[in-house]
């Protein structure tokens, strides 16, 4: 048996005529079509139901086993409407008193109603789909539904509408810039915004920023010390940069000096900033060590990090002081030696501690 199934996804029939659905059988379906046409002659679902009757009459005149029915969803659309259509299809199939296999010919008025096809196909095989449109407005609803889907999709909306909006703003902003005699600034800013947007989309920077914010949020609620350490370290790095520039001015060295003065400029920057940078490194390493200890994953070699930072800071401070003639050769030698020894001693000390603790743990387990 072929079931001619007329689909009204938004339940215009029920809302405008009061008919209870599903409507099954040739005469009840014709009454429903006439009632809907009387209530709203412009409703496209009227054409769907009359098309279903036309198909039914054509197949019935050829003595084929056929039945016609109207199923509806609801105004909510999407999942809720699809589920309601599925329930009504189950009701229709249960009412068919036939021993034959049932297949369906689905009749709709556009792409929106066809979104329910997977639901119908899960209940009864579909032999075909027929879309009914008014000739004067062919494909109009499909175009509307396509545009609606594009605008409802956040990904597509951001990809299409934002660049288009920026481009459309260029002309009015250029006029505004001409009024204030700053056309170049306005056009340059608009072009830069469009360029930054396209680069961020191409490199997926939005997703990375979202991931970073989510990690920061989890760290904040998890009580991770690393988050606070990074904030303090960032402040120390800024202070170090400022102090390095001040050191340049104090030693009367120009940042735009020639190639022969480049080592002196670099030495002045390092001499003024290295203490602050070292403090930032020690802060972040201590924050990481604290989190590892709380998580129970701390290993002895992790404790080398702050000592390595201090050792490198000592070496850099000695070298920069020597280049600036504020430290003698003996001071440079002392810093180099002290930094090297600090790194070696910390490495050996924590390696021995880790080795002995590991051996003690194995002996306890063996006992």
Automatic annotation (TrEMBL):
Ranges annotated as spanning the membrane: 160-180, 186-206, 227-245, 265-286, 307-325, 331-353
Pfam families named among the record's database cross-references: DUF373 (PF04123)
InterPro entries on file: DUF373
Keywords, in A-Z order: Membrane, Transmembrane, Transmembrane helix
Designated name of the protein: DUF373 family protein
Organism: Natronoglomus mannanivorans
């Amino acid at each position: 048996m072929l079931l001619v199934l007329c689909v009204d996804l938004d339940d215009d029939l029920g809302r405008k005529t009061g008919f209870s659905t599903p409507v099954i059988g040739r005469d009840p379906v014709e009454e429903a079509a006439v009632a809907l046409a009387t209530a709203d002659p412009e409703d496209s679902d009227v054409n769907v139901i009359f098309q279903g009757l036309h198909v039914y009459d054509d197949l019935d005149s050829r003595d084929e086993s056929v039945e016609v029915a109207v199923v509806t969803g609801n105004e909510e659309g999407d999942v809720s409407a699809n589920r309601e259509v599925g329930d009504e299809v189950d009701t229709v199939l249960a009412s068919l008193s036939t021993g034959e296999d049932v297949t369906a010919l689905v009749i709709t008025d556009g792409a929106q109603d066809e979104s329910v096809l997977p639901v119908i196909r899960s209940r009864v095989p579909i032999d075909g789909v027929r879309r009914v449109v008014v000739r004067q407005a062919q494909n109009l609803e499909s175009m509307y539904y396509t545009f609606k889907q594009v605008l409802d999709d956040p990904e597509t909306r951001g990809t299409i509408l934002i660049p288009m909006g920026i481009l459309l703003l260029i002309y009015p902003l250029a006029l505004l810039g001409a009024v204030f005699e700053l056309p170049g600034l306005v056009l340059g800013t608009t072009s830069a915004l469009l360029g930054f947007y396209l680069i961020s989309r191409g490199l997926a920077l939005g997703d990375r920023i979202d991931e970073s914010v989510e990690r920061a949020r989890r760290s904040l609620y998890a009580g991770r010390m690393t988050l606070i350490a990074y904030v303090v370290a960032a402040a120390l790095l800024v202070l170090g940069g400022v102090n390095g520039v001040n050191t340049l001015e104090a030693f009367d060295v120009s940042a735009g000096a020639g190639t022969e003065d480049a080592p002196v400029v670099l030495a002045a920057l390092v001499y003024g900033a290295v203490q602050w940078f070292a403090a930032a490194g020690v802060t972040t390493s201590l924050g990481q060590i604290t989190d590892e200890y709380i998580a129970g994953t701390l290993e002895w070699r992790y404790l080398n990090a702050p000592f390595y930072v201090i050792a490198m800071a000592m070496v850099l401070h000695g070298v920069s002081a020597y280049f600036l003639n504020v430290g003698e050769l003996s001071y440079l030698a002392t810093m180099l030696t002290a930094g090297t020894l600090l790194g070696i001693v910390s490495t050996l000390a924590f390696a021995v501690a880790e080795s002995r603790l590991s051996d003690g743990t194995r002996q306890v387990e063996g006992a």
